[in-house]
Amino acid sequence: MNGRTQLMWDEAVTGYDFGPDHPMDPVRLALTRRLVDAFGLDRDVDVVSAKPAGESTLRLVHRQDYVEAVKAASADPASADAAYGLGTMDDPAFAGMHEVSALIAGQSVGAAEAVWRGDAPHAVNFAGGLHHAMPGAASGFCVYNDASLAIARLLELGAERVAYVDVDVHHGDGVQAAFWEDPRVLTVSLHEHPRTLFPGTGRPEETGAESAEGSAVNVALPAGTGDAGWLRAFHAVVPELLADFRPQVLVTQHGADTHFEDPLAHLAVSLDAQRAVQVACHELAHRYADGKWVALGGGGYAVVEVVPRSWTHLVAIAAGREIAPETVVPESWRQEVFARTRQLAPARMTDGRSPVRWADWESGYDPADRLDQAVLAARRAVFPLRGLLA
To answer: What sign results for the dihedral spanned by CA atoms 330, 333, 339, 341?
Structure first.
């Protein structure tokens, strides 16, 4: 196996642009790529541009009529069909939408192929993680579900067990839906409770179809959950499930919108905690998946303050060159941020909360605590179905 991580990147992915008033500003991708470069991480990874996902690949997850609808809206945005979730406020149609969406999907599929074949131990596509797209509709800023396509490609290549762990603030509903009936895929999502956030799904009772009971896991966190609770929930659920499932590949989605500065959600997580979960995912991949790790981006709408730093940490961790939390942000990058956005860039690489501490689940739980109630609900819903003690 090649020891170098692959960073999937093509500058054209910044063309995934819903317009100037949309919260998913592609500057977050450009600034992340520039920050990765400012830290010299290009020396530690192989930067790879994969080809766009073709029709046969897209059809691993998406219906043919939906792909045709995306193509039509891409060629003529005014003709977008809202019945397919296109031309809506969340997913406005734009010229070239099919091409750039297929390109992003292709990077995640390429990442999965490289890791499965042993060309690289890890691969990162921070432009990916578009986890809301459904087989027949766009949803939640997502046109093609690259995460699902990467997993489907792994299955096509012969993988028998793939674990997907999603720590975006929003439920990973599209990936759960794609593999609802497939026991070969374990989907685990930690997200803000659907009572208070889009997409309104992801309750602990959602555990998979009868043919795949216990293959979907949902930890629905109360609004306001901070670092200690978020990490407690992650470690109370994810490691034990992975130890039981023993995936051949671990696919993770690292939406940065759990952060306390994110404008679209209500958790209160710091960059320090996000980095700690990224480190944990890396370690879990080595412990339970022979090191095979595909790491994706996702949501994140504090496009200057949070996203570039979070995903640069992700790339650095995957590359085996962790950036210390207290590290000063390169001045060259701060200048570029101001030139592009007229905003002042953050000065350091985290929020100064490291080391982040949390209480292990094994130390006991408080039945009156809302966070512990959420964890216990998830464990009670799924663990017995997998033969584990709740």
So the answer is: negative
